[in-house]
Design goal:
Blueprint: H1 2-34, E1 41-43, H2 47-52, H3 55-62, E2 66-68, H4 76-84
Parallel strand pairs: 1-2
Length: about 80
């Protein structure tokens, strides 16, 4: 019985995390395609860049606009696509 409950909870948490991640990604891609993103400092990278660098803190401390383009679980090609767009 415990195994079935663990499986159900795991599936629910994974779904919630993936849904939130997908919604966040759509927001970023929509901003890129609409041309809304104009920034002085751009942070690129994997999940490490996405999690470890706060664009709000960098903007506050340096006085320049900053945007974090880090992508969780993606490779260089996806980063390069974001850069080119």
């Amino acid at each position: 019985m415990i195994c079935i409950a663990d499986f159900g909870i795991s599936k629910y948490v994974s779904h919630q995390r993936n849904t939130r991640f997908i919604a966040d990604e759509f927001e970023v891609w929509n901003q890129i395609f609409s041309g809304e993103l104009e920034t002085d400092i751009a942070i690129y990278g994997s999940s490490r860049a996405w999690v470890q660098f706060s664009s709000a803190i960098i903007s506050k401390e340096l006085g320049d606009s900053c945007y974090n383009f880090g992508i969780d679980g993606q490779n260089f090609r996806m980063q390069y696509l974001r850069h080119k767009l």
